[in-house]
Amino acid sequence: MIKEESEQTSIPMTRQSMAGYLSPLARDMKPSGIRRFFDLVSSRKDIITLGVGEPDFVTPWHVREAAVYALETGKTQYTSNAGMPELREAIGQYLNDSFSVAYNPADEIIVTVGGSEAIDLALRALIVPGDEILIPEPCYISYSPITALSGGVAVGIETFAEDNFKLRADSLRAVITPRSKVLILCYPSNPTGGTMTYEDWLPITKLVEEHDLIVISDEIYAELTYGSKHVSFAAMPGMKDRTILVSGFSKAFAMTGWRMGYACAHTDILSAMLKIHQYTVMCAPVMGQYAALEALRHGQEEMNRMVESYNQRRRLVVKGFRDIGLECHEPQGAFYAFPSIASTGLSSEQFAQRLLEEAGVAAVPGDVFGLGGEGHLRCSYATSVSQLTEALDRIGQFVYKIKQ
User: Which of helix, strand or coil describes residue 245?
Assistant: First the structure.
């Protein structure tokens, strides 16, 4: 006879708290410095947000329509684990045409759930516990936590505003040890907007080869450059087989919520990544894949318009910060400004907190992005000119007040 619920014997908990069941890596991991800060914004309606790295453009209609049509015609099944063949072919053609790097769609390209999954797959496929992963900083906040979850050791390489936040060979050489295995690159850079030229990459390629490193090149902002064309690290002499190229559709095609990305690599590496992908997400959503295919085939005109708009806002924001009296290097890519707030005497966290509370402007404190970030503020200019103008006015009044 089944006992009444109130009479059933409960199983005693054998650990001091539910947290005792968690992996120490997951339990002790810090929450996202960006998301944690912007949770504070939700309670106020008068905030101008310069924080989340997301285009303010809506995905173009014809791209959305491709997804709608896929639904209407019953395209709702799984695709190949690696992604639809026609999408992989389009990605390969696009990379060859745009950045002069050639990949075989059959076994060197995989479609992922955003660029973030591609980075995760790459690190899990490569890392043996204790491997050192070299990361130029300030950088995208996810690299170090994903490295830790995979058993690796993240090693920061500080870059500097006076160098336009470029990775220098001497700085890279200084951190390489016998346990160094992977170099993660993100150019154009989030959060600094820094870029690298062919000449900048040459000494880096020599060190990569000399020390037998594998490179994960996060090129999600490749299309968003101003005044010069993006140089893919994978296109550098001898670097293609050593490079896992990661990119996606979020930034250039205004498709952040679609979570469509891809990775390109030597077939031996990609096959290992694909096995992890098979056991975790199976395949990227089919409707999103049709939308991504449409974006590649017919989205160049809208992309160009968005890039030109970002360029105008970039000039407005950099001039605005300099007029306020805050030093600001000129970003050559992405859609972020990274002004120095050191002259105010406040830490990045203090400045961002007070700016939010006293001026109603939300931006990300630079220290969350690692070495070299303290003393800076990340401000996205992927918002309207009117909002940017008002934000600069508020920031100017705030800086004037605290310097008195």
Answer: strand
Find residue 245's DSSP bridge partners.
217, 264
- Report the distance separating Cα 243 and Cα 223, nearest Å: 19
Q: How is the beta sheet containing 180-186 ordered, strand by strand?
A: 109-113, 260-264, 243-248, 214-218, 180-186, 132-137, 153-158
**Extended strands (E) in 138-226:** 153-158, 180-186, 214-218
Report d(CA 283, CA 270) in Å as an integer: 14
Task: Say whether pTM exceeds 0.85.
Answer: yes
Which pLDDT tens digits describe the chain residue by residue (404 residues)?
445 444 555 555 566 677 778 888 787 777 666 666 666 666 667 889 997 778 889 999 999 999 999 999 999 999 999 999 999 999 999 999 999 999 999 999 999 999 999 999 999 999 999 999 999 999 999 999 999 999 999 999 999 999 999 999 999 999 999 999 999 999 999 999 999 999 999 999 999 999 999 999 999 999 999 989 999 999 999 999 999 999 999 999 999 999 999 999 999 999 999 999 999 999 999 999 999 999 999 999 999 999 999 999 999 999 999 999 999 999 999 999 999 999 999 999 999 999 999 999 999 999 999 999 999 999 999 999 999 999 999 999 999 999 88
CA separation, residue 54 to residues 77, 272, 326 (Å): 29, 31, 24
Per the DSSP assignment, residues forming a β-bridge with 113 are: 260
CA-CA distance, 271 to 248, in Å (whole number)?
A: 19
Q: Is 354 left (phi over 0), alpha (psi -120 to 50) or beta?
A: alpha
Contact (CB, 8 A) for 195 and 228: yes
Can you spell out the DSSP letters for 99-145? HS----TTTSEEEEEHHHHHHHHHHHHH--TT-EEEEEES--TTHHH
* Rounded Cα–Cα distance for residues 400 and 387 (Å): 20
Q: How many CB atoms lie within 10 A of CB 141?
A: 19
Half-sphere exposure (Cβ direction) of 146: Cα atoms closer than 13 Å: 19
